[in-house]
Design a protein that fits this description.
- The chain has 128 residues and is an all-alpha fold.
- The protein has helices at residues 3-17, 37-45, 54-58, 60-69, 73-84, 96-110, 113-117, 120-127.
- The protein has two domains: 1-32; 34-127, no CATH class.
- The chain is built from eight helices and no strands.
- Helix 2 packs across helix 4 (60-69).
- The longest helix has 15 residues, at 3-17.
- The protein is globular and about 35 Å long.
Length: 128
């Protein structure tokens, strides 16, 4: 485990000893995870009806991963499916509002309109 992961785990263990929620139950933002520039850029380019509101606040790590995969539909689609379908059986699941935002993003990615949202430099990155 990395030092950061050890620190987070230690904080989680201490929280349990004094009756605070485990770090696994805390929003990612409370753990210091932030949106990267690529995620912010993607969110800004999305049409208003697709643009997620709660997902970036509650799960910035997931938004960062979506932004990283956005221009590669072959990798992004299984990632979205994994978020929406619990194949392991051990997840708590997302709230309905988060599920709806993820679903809208997936639908938009698979639509022809998604090609218009992509930056020419993003498209070139896939061909190199």
């Amino acid at each position: 485990m990395t030092k950061k992961a050890n620190d987070i785990q230690a904080v989680g263990n201490q929280a349990n000893q004094i009756g605070l929620p485990d770090t696994a139950e805390l929003p990612e933002a409370a753990l210091g995870v932030a949106l990267n520039r690529e995620a912010i850029s993607l969110i800004e380019r999305l049409p208003a009806e697709v643009r997620p509101l709660k997902l970036p606040e509650e799960y910035p790590r997931i938004c960062n991963q979506i932004a990283e995969l956005w221009t590669d539909q072959a990798q992004a689609t299984p990632f979205f499916d994994d978020l929406l379908i619990d194949n392991r059986g051990d997840r708590n699941g997302f709230s309905l509002s988060i599920i709806m935002e993820i679903s809208k993003l997936k639908e938009h990615l698979l639509s022809p309109a998604a090609m218009q949202d992509q930056d020419i430099w993003d498209l070139n990155r896939n061909f190199s």
